[in-house]
Amino acid sequence: MRNLANITISTTTRVCVFSKCNKPTEPYSTKCIVHKHRAMCDFPDCRKQTVKRNRCAKHGGKRVCLHPHCAENARGGKFCIAHGGVATARLCDVAGCGKHAHLHKKCIRHGGGKHCSVAGCFLHARGRGLCHQHQMTQDLSVKDDMQQLDDSILSLLMEPLAWDESETNLHLCNEDWGTLLVEI
Predict the structure, then answer these.
(1) How does DSSP classify residue 60?
(2) Around 144, how many Cα atoms within 13 Å sit in the side-chain half-sphere?
(3) In the chain, where are the structural domains located?
(4) How confident is the model over 61-80, as a mean pLDDT?
(5) Which domain of life is it from (predicted)?
(6) In whole angstroms, what is the distance from residue 134 CA to residue 131 CA?
(7) Rounded to an integer, what distance in angstroms lies between the CA atom of residue 182 and that of residue 159?
(8) Which of 37, 5, 2 is nearest to 18 (CA)?
(9) pLDDT tens digits, residue range 72-124?
(10) CB distance 70 to 83 below 8 Å
(11) Dihedrals phi, psi of 139, to nearest 5 degrees
């Protein structure tokens, strides 16, 4: 019998090589599931994700503003937002509102979001066309359906098998199977 007292088991998990990513790596990889198909910046000792030309935004993956003494990234043209670049995000059409527009060029607060698909519900849809409340009730009903299905399958598996004990099958019990198998 071996002495197991000196054996230590390592429970450390490798972490993704990308900077600021603390997710565990995929098996046989140095990257997590989020970054597994992403390339890393070619700049020495940089562990950021590439944007363009195998470089991150900091090391030349994005264009720099052409205004003198400005090091910001160009947005929607040759300049940054401060020097005349175009903001690509559309804003709400309501005067004085600076929130991002969704449906009908309006933010959610001003009627730009979709409503819950349940009749009579006017809350905003969060996912699958349902508000948070109806999404939760649907998830619970699916869990109940799955539980009923599991219970049905389990009860079928646990039922005793109904053997047919009629005379037609009883003669098989009295046969000499050794000689029958040799004849085959």
Answers:
(1) I
(2) 6
(3) 90-146
(4) 86
(5) Eukaryota
(6) 5
(7) 36
(8) 37
(9) 888 878 888 888 887 777 888 888 888 888 878 888 888 888 888 888 888 87
(10) yes
(11) -60, -40
